[in-house]
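Hey team,

Filing this mostly as a record. A colleague (T.K.) asked me to run one chain through the structure pipeline before their review meeting, and I want the input and output archived in the tracker in case anyone asks later how it was produced. No errors, nothing strange. Just documentation.

Input sequence:
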Amino acid sequence: MKTVTSKDGTRIAYDRIGEGAPLILVDGALCSRTNGPNGALAALLKQHYTVYTYDRRGRGESGDQATYDVEREVEDLDALIREAGGTAFVYGISSGAALALDAALRLPSIRKLALYEAPFVTDGSREPVPGEYERRMETLIREERRGDAVKLFMRKGVGLPAPIVAIMPLMPAWSELKAVAHTLAYDTRLTIDQQQGRKETLGRWSAVRTPALVAVGGKSPAWMRHGMDSLAQTLPNAQHRTLPGQTHIVKPAALAPVLTEFFQ
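Output structure:
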């Protein structure tokens, strides 16, 4: 494990493997470099790239600050890119894709941008995330009700059925999810505006001219597929790919060849 210091003094922990052009992988909600899909993905990409996985602030071995702002997470990514040599490819999954998009608005050092299933609700194919969701999430975290925060995220953010959410505390990974539950407020800030069932909310990224890949699983729910189609139409220099048979829990073996082709 290595560390880099972000602009506000926060230490960000990261791992680096492989050789080649630098590629930074950005996790989604509740994941870190040791608990999530990007570790296995990095192992498949290392033969082509120098791959960086990192703990987003507040997770794993990275530090945090009392006050959160999306700009701080963009600065974390900027610090990693500088550490990698000044330019890099960037891949983001789920809310990490939203963070990567915000970074691409600010950082010309991102050479290419790959995005997998940002959780954007852009039409009526599912209910919008409730208007009070952000306030409820912040309240639960402030009251240290971490388990309830994870349940709220899974039920209203992800849209899982209530019976599945009810049995989640029995899962072996439940304690790991609760350990980073406070960062759900960060992911909420990143995505809530684009979860209201309106395609026009994606317009903020129409200025991202970085070459982009927008990918979605062929078995993912309709709202996710529609959201990514809308995003691909919004970005001026994007290509859209559907990965047959894949869901939001995308298999690294299915994704790695697509990323390799795009970044080459």
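Quick notes for T.K.: The first strand starts at residue 2 and ends at 5. Strands lie at 2-5, 11-17, 21-26, 49-54, 88-93, 110-116, 212-217, 238-243.
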